[in-house]
Amino acid sequence: MNDPWLTVPAEQPQGTGTLAVCFAPTGAHGSTFAGWRGRVPEDITLAFVAPPGRGTRVDEEPVTDMAVYADAAAAGIRELLDGRRLVLVGVSLGALLAYETCRRLLDAGVPVTRLCAVAGQCPGDFDGRGEDVTVEDARAFVAGTGLTDPELLADPEFEEVLLPPVIADLQLAARYDGRRGAVPQVDLRAVWASEDPHVPEVTVRRWAEWTRGECTLMSVEGGHFAHQENPAAVVAACLDGLPGTRPSRRSVLGAGATAVASTVLGLGAVASAAPAARAAGTTATATATASYDADPTDPVALAVAMIRQNTSNPGDGAVTLPLARMLQGIFGAAGVATEIVPTPKDGNVHFFARIPGRGPVTKKPLVLLGHSDVVPAIGDRWETDPFAGEIKDGKLYGRGSLDMKGVNAAFVAALLRHVREGASFDRDIVFWSDCDEEQGPYGVRWFLTEHPGRLTAGAVITEGGWVLNQRDGSTPMIASLTCNDKRSLLLRLETASYATHTSKPFSGQAVIRLGEVLEQLGQWRAHIRPNALSRTYFAELAEATTDRHLARALREMLDARTDRQRDRAGESVVRLSETPELHNAMLRTTLAFTAAQSGYYPSIVPGTATAEFRAAFLPGAEDPGRTVAELRSLIGNRATLSVVGNPGESEQQALDRLRGYLATPDSDHDTDVFRAWQSAVRRTHPGVRATACQFEAVTSAVPFREQNVPVYGMYPFTVTRDMLKRMHGTDEHIGVEPLRQGTETVYQLLAGLRSKH
Fold first, then answer.
1. What is the pLDDT of residues 36-93, one digit of tens each?
2. Which of 6, 395, 655, 728 is the most exposed place for a label (fewest CB within 10 A)?
C-alpha cells in the first residue's frame, strides 16, 4: 500500500487557505464528489481519500480496520496540509472515517477547523460486535441504498468490481466500536437530507453528542446520496462560513433554494439538538433558536420543546443560549420582561423573567428556580432519542424530562396562565433558569456572588420533593416539599501491586484487589439515622399509607430507642416501600459508586487501579469525618482511601466545608409560600397529606439558605419507582397526565399569592 492515500484533482485551483478532505460513502471513492468541483468557496482545495481496493488502487487489499484506515488517512493529510486550515467531510460511512481521522489529527497536535458528517450514523451507534459480512449482505446493501442501477448489479462482471469494496467497508463498520476514545474538541456540522430513508434527522442529531466544540445541525433537500443529487446545497452546508473564504457564485445561487433548514447551536461536550428553525439560506448565527408556536400554557408542549433543546452539561457548564432565546420569545409574547445574563463561557447564560407585583408590594420576590442544563445522554443506549421529546404510552421521554425540564415547563405554563388571566401578585414573581446546576462554575452561587443585589428573594421554589402513590400505583398518597438537601463527598480508592507481563499473572493483582474492596464497600450500611425533616415526613407517611405493615414498621422506627431497634425497623421500612431507593436515601448516609479505572496496555497487568464514589450525608445525622474513618477501618491496608476536595484543599478543609453545608438550617415551614403549597395540594389532590421533607439529593438551594432565605423543593407530579430510577439514567421519562396535574398544583400555589388589591 505505497500509493498515496489522498488525491488532489489537477484541474482544480490549488487554494492556499483551506484544504477540504472528503471521505466517500460505503464502497465509493473520490469520483462520488465529482459534482463538487467548481462549487466550493474560493481559496479551498478539495482532496479525496483514496484507500486501497477501489479507484486506481482496486488491485490492492482493502482495509477493514478502522484504526489502520484512520492512521493512514491522517498521515496522508499531514503530508499534504502545508500550513492550511483543515476541514474533514465524510458522507455516510465516510462520516465515521472522518471522525476517527479527526481524533488522530487532534491527538497529534494538528488543528481541525471543521468536521462535517453528512447522512451518517454517529460513532455511538457502533459497538464493534457486528457479524461477518457476506456477499449476500453486500448485494442487499447495494440494492437497498440504490448505490447503483439494479440492472448493472445483475451483471456478474460489474458485481465482481463493485462488491469487494462494499464488503470491505461493511466489515470495517461491523468491527468498529465508536464508543472508545475521548470525544474531540472540534466544531462539527451534522447534515441530514430531508428525504433520506436510511439516516433520518433523528439519527443525524445524535452527532451532537460526539463533540466538545460547537455543533451546527443542517438540513438539505435530497436522499441518502444528496452530496451527488444536490451538491450545491451540501457544499454550502459543509464549507460556507469558513474564516477567510468567499463563497463561489455557483455555491450561493445553487444553495439558496435547496437548503431548507439550519440551526447553529453552541455546545459543550455534548451538543445541542434543538429542532431546526426554518431559514431561507443555508447558514444561521450562533444566536439562532427554534421558534415556539404552541400554547405556552400547555406544559406538555413546553416540556417537549425544552427537551429538544439539548443543553447537556459536560462538566464545565452547558450551552443554554438557544433555550434562553426560546424562553425569551415565549415570555416576550406574553408581555413579560426578560433578561439574559451571560457567563464567561460562550453560550452559557442565565435566563430571567419577572412579573412585577401590584399594589403596595411589601414582600420580597418569589423565585421559581429551575435549571436548564441536563446531564449527558452518551453512556447507555436509549430506546428513544433522548432529545426528541417523544410521547409514548402516556409517557414523555427525554433527557431532562424529570430533572428538571418537566418542572420548568410546569413553572412557566402555570405562571403564564395567570398572566393570560390578567392576574396580579402581592410580590414580584421571578422565573430563573440556571445554566450550571449539574456541574460547572457559573451556577447560582456564581451569579449571586458576581451580581450582588441584582436579585433579592423572599422565598425560592426549586426541584425537590415528590408526590407518591399508594401501593395500587394510581392513588396519590403523599406530597412533600423539601426544606433541606443532602450533601455529598467525593472519595477515591486506590489499590497497588506491581505491573508485569500478562503471561505471568499473580495473586493480589491491583484490579482484583480493587474489586474485592468495592464488593466490601458495596455491602456496607450506615445506621438508620432520620433527621428532624425525615422524621416529620415518615410520621406523615405512616398516617398516609394504606399498607398497615409499612405503617407499623414506620412507627417502630420512629419510636426506636437504640441503633439496633432503629436499624431493624428501618430496613423493614425500606423493604416494604414502593420506592425503596428513595426512602433508603432519606434515612441514612449512602455510598454511590461512579467510576473505576485501570490498565493502559493489553499485555500489561497494571500496577494500580482506582475507583471513585460519593458518600451522601443527611444534615444533622452522621459526621462525615467519622464516616471516612469508619470506611478506612473497614478496608484496612488493602486500599488507600482519600477525600477529593476542591483544587488546593486539604482533606480537613474539604470535610470542614462539608460540615458547614450540613449545618445550614432547614427552611422555615411557617411561611405563606409553604402554606400556599399545602393549600394547592389539597385542591389538586384531595385527601393527600402535604408535608415538609428532606431531599435525598443536592440542589442550588444552599447559597440562598446561607442567606436565611427559605428554599423549598418540589416535583409537583406523581412519580413511580421506575421514573425515579431513570433520573440521570437511560430512558428518563415522566407521565403526561401527571405533568398536567402537577402544573395545576403550581397554578393553585401561585393563586394563593395573588394580590388582593
1. 887 888 789 999 998 888 777 877 888 889 999 999 999 999 999 988 999 999 999 9
2. 728
Q: CA-CA distance, 619 to 637, in Å (whole number)?
A: 30
CA gap 278, 280 in Å, rounded? 7
| Mean pLDDT for the stretch of residues 158-187 | 80
Convert 685-733 into a string of H (helix), E (strand) and C (coil).
Answer: CCCCEEEEEEECCCCCCHHHHCCCCCEEEEEEEEECHHHHHCCCCCCCE
For the chain, helix, strand, coil in percent to 5 are 35, 20, 40
For residue 8, give the C-alpha cell: 488532489
Q: Are 40 and 235 in contact (CB under 8 A)?
A: yes
Cβ contact 366:457 at 8 Å: yes
Cell numbers linked to 550: 409499612
Tell me phi and psi for residue 355, to 5 degrees. -110, 110
What is the share, in percent, of the chain residues with pLDDT greater than 70? 89
- List the one residue out of 327, 392, 308 whose CA is nearest residue 733: 392
> Which amino acid, one-letter code, is at 534?
S
DSSP annotation of 538 reads: H
Give the dihedral sign, CA 458/464/467/470. negative
Q: 612, 489 in Cβ contact below 8 A?
A: no
| Three-class DSSP category at 71 | helix
Q: At what angle do helices 135-145 and 156-174 cross, to 10 degrees?
A: 100
Rounded to the nearest integer, the mean pLDDT of the chain is 87
Cell (9 digits) for 153: 448489479
CB 572 within 8 A of CB 553: yes
* pLDDT of 739 higher than 80: yes
How far, in Å, are 145, 184, 366 from residue 181 at the CA level? 30, 9, 46
Burial-class residue 707 by CB neighbours within 10 Å (0-12, 13-18, 19+). Answer: exposed
- Over residues 222-228, mean pLDDT: 90
Cell 431513570 sits at which residue?
726
Q: Bin 146: left if φ > 0, else alpha if -120 < ψ < 50, else beta.
A: left
- Residue owning grid cell 411589601: 362
Read off the DSSP letter of residue 422.
Answer: T
CA distance 307 to 222: 28
Exposure on the CB side of residue 290, measured as CA atoms within 13 A:
20
Contact 174, 133 (CB under 8 A): yes
Contact 399, 732 (CB under 8 A): yes
Nearest by Cα to 405 from 295, 294, 304 = 304
Q: Which of 292-296, 344-348, 541-545 has the highest mean pLDDT?
A: 541-545
Please tell me the distance from the alpha carbon of residue 281 to that of residue 263, in angstroms, as a whole number. Answer: 11
Q: How many whole angstroms separate alpha carbon 529 and alpha carbon 538?
A: 12
Angle CA(468)–CA(472)–CA(477) in degrees, nearest 5? 30
Q: How many Cβ atoms are within 10 Å of 132's Cβ, its own excluded?
A: 10
- Residue appearing with cell numbers 395540594: 681
Burial class (CB in 10 A: 0-12, 13-18, 19+), 144: exposed
Per-residue 3-state assignment (H helix, E strand, C coil) for 570-589: HHHHHHHCCCHHHHHHCCCC
Q: Are 252 and 225 in contact (CB under 8 A)?
A: no
Interatomic CA distance for residues 91 and 99, integer angstroms: 11
| 484: nearest Cα among 541, 540, 432, 531 | 531
Place of cell 460505503: 26
- Please spell the DSSP secondary structure of 337-370, one letter per residue: EEEEEE-SSTT-EEEEEEE---SS--SPPEEEEE
